[in-house]
């Protein structure tokens, strides 16, 4: 499978890469190890010794360097071999490990898998609602045995929540107004639900609307390549101006592990202006949100992947409905960017 490489992918949540520990993750079919130096700065390098190809992650962290578990070659944060314990200690010119540019932002570690010289931190997708100074944030991670584009489809078409997540939805969702907007290489998938008299208790609680009140709510998803999505979910008593309601931004980030598996990073944030109690609510809600993702979305996506197997998605001639507009456009944008990169 061809991947878009000259872009920023989410490699890990910041909390996953801990001090004095080696962390590993496969990204775009490449085994990568991560560690923090004594100042807390994150490093990412190929999990592969150039000598006999042992996994460096099985070795030791020593003075901000990685020692190979097989023959003791030691590599610094720049991937250079700095110690050869054998013979006269001469270090061959080829004793280098590939290092990947990384930037820590929005409580996540972002990695550049393409040409290092093109890695510009200014091109990391903006996620301002993950500013920890102004928002309470809850986040989590899950591995999915499904292609990352299937997951993009899932978030860009939220009509599915009526059927996959009945405890979080109502029949009004699929009947809501839907439109897809393309702005360059970004997409908005907007679903607006009016006069919802059957919204579940969870919705009333999050949007601070008394139970039994008819509400208007919205589900607006913003997509940026390769699969960086923000979900703006809001609600207000029916007929009132949206500025009087509550909007809770969330994020859904997908990174390919392999052609048929992916990494799913997700979270929710609440403006601190809503009150200090929402710090606890953010932590509680992310635990509650994991359940539907793990036990409802995940089985569906993995069943899709089992049926598709290693075949090309479009070769399977999928039926296209109007609800698929955003997902289809995202796939086309990604393919165009990949084709241009490989031209």
Primary descriptors:
single chain; 343 residues; alpha+beta; Rieske Iron-sulfur Protein; Naphthalene 1,2-dioxygenase Alpha Subunit, Chain A, domain 1; 2 domains; seven-stranded antiparallel sheet; four-stranded antiparallel sheet; 20% helix
As for the CATH topology of the largest domain, it is Naphthalene 1,2-dioxygenase Alpha Subunit, Chain A, domain 1
Give the neighbour order of strands across the main sheet. Answer: 12-18-17-16-15-14-13
Which radius of gyration do the C-alpha atoms yield?
22 Å
Number of helices: 5
Structural class: alpha+beta
- Overall mean pLDDT: 94
For the record, give the distance between the C-alpha atoms at the N and C termini, rounded to a whole number: 16 Å
* Largest sheet data: 7 strands, antiparallel
**Helix content range of the residues, please?**
10-25%
Summed up, the domain count is: 2
β-sheet strand percentage? 25-35%
Q: Return the CATH architecture of the largest domain.
A: Alpha-Beta Complex
Name the CATH superfamily classification of the largest domain. Answer: Naphthalene 1,2-dioxygenase Alpha Subunit, Chain A, domain 1
Q: Please provide the count of β strands.
A: 18
Can you tell me the overall shape? globular
